[in-house]
Amino acid sequence: xxxxxxxxxxxxxxxxxxxxxxxxxxxxxxxxxxxxxxxxxxxxxxxxxxxxxxxxxxxxxxxxxxxxxxxxxxxxxxxxxxxxxxxxxxxxxxxxxxxxxxxxxxxxxxxxxxxxxxxxxxxxxxxxxxxxxxxxxxxxxxxxxxxxxxxxxxxxxxxxxxxxxxxxxxxxxxxxxxxxxxxxxxxxxxxxxxxxxxxxxxxxxxxxxxxxxxxxxxxxxxxxxxxxxxxxxxxxxxxxxxxxxxxxxxxxxxxxxxxxxxxxxxxxxxxxxxxxxxxxxxxxxxxxxxxxxxxxxxxxxxx
Length: 303
Fold this sequence. Notes:
This protein is about 80% helix and about 0% strand.
């Protein structure tokens, strides 16, 4: 409980404030989302990679673990689609919500509160990997537009260029004049509360309906996904924070961006949106359980 409550309560508080703001204030959710996506989160990514203390081997392990887990989830859902004889649109929706969790708006703050700066650095690596997969791979999987289209989509991401800049400046040991790096750092710090406020606004503005499909999709996202990640992490010999962050990031509820991707490239946006809401609400039960398990049954030293 000494780790659990300090990690969960601040996150829940800011989400609640966002929900209240959505209900009683004239907040523009689209503007806040663009602010986070195009400015704040890229600033956080660039700053953390510039200052990172993670060894290259650890970073590669996290990337490999996240990609392999995503691939196994994709194969699992393909099997479910065939065995369940699901329609093409339902199957595509299930693929999107199962493969991609909310590793940004919820994953970054929770890892930060649970594991500190070291955990946040590792969570950012998972975020970058997820974003490249989401925008670079999912169009090809859902609509068959080919990998060239996915590469073009990836190159349009501010997140991608922030990643490149952060890595290059880190490797070159660049020192910024007039404390410009401090300004970028402050922008990055603003991304975490803004992301949680946006999540609260999204929950407050979306109808909560629970059906068999939403429950099944939520189980895949909240329980099966982290179980697969734990297995993959152990097989890759990940330990300490690397393993904990990989599992916790993979345990996040369905990402809001999956609704947009399903609407654009095939599937049922309404079904995906309901899955996002149901899995997010249920994650307030599942995430503390996952965090408790990681804290009590993975007493490994931090790398």
